[in-house]
Amino acid sequence: MAEKATVFQTIQIGKEATPGTAVAANRKLLACSLVPQIRTESEAFRAAGNKYASFVVVNKEWSELAIDGKLTYNEILYLLASRLSEPTPVQQGGTAAYKWTFVSDTDGEDVGKTFTVEQGDANNAWRVAGALITGLTFSFSRNGVNVNGAGMAKPVETGITLTAAPTSMTPRPILPSHLSFKTATTQAGLSGAVALTRGFSMEFSMMDKAANAWPVGQSAVLVEGVPNLSAKLKLATDTTGMGYIANMRAGDTVWFQIKATGALIASTYYYDFQLQFPAQIEAPGDFGDESNIYALEYGLKPIHDSTWGKSFQIDVIADASTI
User: CA-to-CA distance for 125 and 18, rounded, in angstroms?
Assistant: First the structure.
């Protein structure tokens, strides 16, 4: 057997029809990695009178996913379909462009898609079934547009053979030059708002979607809990940037938009990513330097808006009708 060279440990995924039932991992993501990690909860027993443990009992075993990569207009569809739910895309003007709208149900379950994830090489491989993405964090700045996060899955199954000839999308990366940040006092006001000229970075995080419950006599069950939504915005300390202190003191809701527009798909339809959310300012950070400009980062708490009926919405236009 050849050495298990790290560089060749490929990762493939397959969308499951029935959550937890393994399928062929016939897709390979080229802009993001979902790396399975073995997790256990064990207990060592030491009898009275002995200095050393007699045995170890593994009480619980599961898998976690470490997610890291670049944000793209097309591969993000896989991640959002699992973290939230898979919408039906709407074809744009009879072209190859499709619009995907992702939301979260404030008072109901988000039925995220699960994946089978395979990892390995020609020497040997393993897989996890029932992989659900439980958290994603998007980071936007001129230094890069990144995604990372976490997931949970069933225990690792060893001794498998990688699914042959997986297909891949051609990555359509969101470039820093594609970005714009907007704020407004209402959701409708975002469409006509002027983009911030001294906004340096934004982050949007939706973590802790689900956790394992452990009933006796059966496998662990992933159960949705209270998610953790958070965001950050770093601005120059000019009149605009310092103006949000008044919003914080008044408990005002401010609307935020992160938008990226890429290359033309067809007709008048471009690759597009748009994230909108209402939030209140939760925790200003410390003053500091950002590219020789004195800046301040605001901690934001996205909230549910009763008129809008949601806490955030992500719209993606890509040349993909299915995942």
Answer: 22
Separation CA 202–CA 209 (nearest Å): 21
Closest CA to 255 of 211, 318, 193, 203: 193
- Mean pLDDT, the chain, integer: 96
| Model confidence pTM above 0.85 | yes
Q: Provide the token pair at 268.
A: 């008048």
pLDDT over 90 (residue 219): no
Count of residues in the chain: 323
Q: State the Cα–Cα distance between residues 133 and 254, nearest whole angstrom.
A: 28
Instruction: Give the C-alpha separation, 110 to 103, whole Å.
Output: 9
Distance CA 234, CA 155 (A): 40
Write down the number of H helices and E strands in the chain: 2, 18
246-279: b (≥16 Cβ within 10 Å) or e: ebbeeeeebbbbbbbbbeebeeebbbbbbbbbbb
Task: Give the separation between CA 133 and CA 272, rounded to whole angstroms.
Answer: 23
1 pLDDT higher than 70: no
Contacts of residue 143, defined as CB under 8 A and 6 or more positions apart, other chains included, come to: 176, 201
Beta strands in 16-50 (DSSP E): 32-45
Q: Is 121 exposed, middle or buried (0-12, 13-18, 19+ CB in 10 A)?
A: middle
Window from 1-10, 12-21, 101-110 with minimum mean pLDDT: 1-10
Contact by Cβ (8 Å): 278, 303 = yes
Q: pLDDT-based confidence at 218, cuts 50/70/90? A: confident
Contact 299, 232 (CB under 8 A): yes
At 109-128, the pLDDT tens digits run 999 999 999 999 999 999 99
In our burial notation (b when 16+ CB lie closer than 10 A, e otherwise), range 311-321 reads bbbbbbbbbbe
- What are the tokens at 73? 């207009």
pLDDT in tens, 146-183: 999 999 999 999 999 999 999 999 999 999 999 999 99
